[in-house]
Amino acid sequence: MGKYYSPTGGLPPQTHLTTERAIVTEAYTVIPKGVMTDIVTSNLPGFSNTRSWIIARPISGFATTFSQLIVEIGPGGGAPKAEFEAGVEGVIFVTRGKVNLTLDGELHQLEEGGYAYLAAGSEWGLENVSGDVVSFHWIRKAYERLEGYEAKSFVTNEKDVEPTAMPDTDGAWKTTRFTDSSDLAHDMQVNIVTFQPGGVIPFPETHVMEHGLYVLEGKAMYLLNNDWVEVEAGDFMWLRAFCPQACYAGGPGEFRYLLYKDMNRQVRLT
């Protein structure tokens, strides 16, 4: 069992209570891990021995800037070409197993914690050459080009990136940033946020950035608009722009989530 939560599918028995923690509102959505069963998975064009849970997509009243998938590839499966849509950038973050990534003709092996930024226009594919399943998050966004700047693909691992402590928190709240926030080549970030037990977001953040949050480890109370919601590893949260958010991580262990946000672009009005 790895350190990051990955869904395993299955189907609850007929005796299982129907009540769950799923919430859908105009301001936010919570998709709890308990509803990610076999019957809500989707096949992906070009992939073999693969299934996916699509947990965010552009749709009225939901995500507007991105899509997010949890992808599971069985032994021998994958896709020689994964991205078919022109102008789309992506991020892969591996939560279980190992997968071979061929990126613009170069081979990389991604294991748990592996992170790849896949620039728009890059050629890439995946192959599971191991004897076990591999699970990863795949976040996709239409790249908004900015004259004089161009985002470049790269591959790394979480363990090779030093987290940055948020100001005046004594390390109780840290962010692992895989790209520099000041780099205007990037119009989005996919980071990892870590709270130590007792760590908090001490005010209701209210901002223009849309968020997707997948809980990798632990549990916490999360403020979504006017509601305090208890979330745990395996849960996904979507927050629309300007939805107030805060967090209290009560422990006993670390609370960590994968965070998507759009950034570094002017608001289009025409």
Description of the molecule:
- The chain is an all-beta fold and 270 residues long.
- Helix content is 0%, strand content 46%.
- It has no helices and 21 strands.
- The protein has strands at 23-24, 28-31, 48-56, 67-79, 88-96, 99-103, 106-110, 114-118, 124-127, 134-142, 154-157, 164-165, 173-176, 188-195, 200-205, 211-217, 219-224, 227-232, 236-239, 245-248, 255-262.
- The strands form three sheets. Strands 3, 4, 5, 6, 7, 8, 9, 10 and 11 form a nine-stranded antiparallel sheet that branches. An eight-stranded antiparallel sheet has the order 1-2-19-16-21-14-13-12, with no helix packed on it.
- The model has no long low-confidence stretch (mean pLDDT 97).
Concise structural overview:
One of its GO terms (molecular function) is allantoicase activity. With 270 residues, this protein is mostly beta strands.
Key descriptive features of the protein:
270 residues, mainly beta, eight-stranded antiparallel beta sheet, hydrolase
Rg = 18 Å
Sheet with most strands: 9 strands, antiparallel
The dominant shape is globular
SS strand fraction = over 45%
One letter per element, helices H and strands E, the order comes to: EEEEEEEEEEEEEEEEEEEEE
Helix content: under 10%
Number of helices: 0
Mean pLDDT: 97
> Given the helix and strand composition, which structural class is it?
mainly beta
Number of strands: 21
Distance between the termini: 49 Å
* Stretches with pLDDT under 50, minimum 5 residues: none
Any chance you could write out the topology, listing elements then pairs?
Blueprint: E1 23-24, E2 28-31, E3 48-56, E4 67-79, E5 88-96, E6 99-103, E7 106-110, E8 114-118, E9 124-127, E10 134-142, E11 154-157, E12 164-165, E13 173-176, E14 188-195, E15 200-205, E16 211-217, E17 219-224, E18 227-232, E19 236-239, E20 245-248, E21 255-262
Antiparallel strand pairs: 1-2, 2-19, 3-4, 4-9, 4-10, 5-8, 5-10, 6-7, 6-9, 8-11, 12-13, 13-14, 14-21, 15-20, 16-19, 16-21, 17-18, 17-20
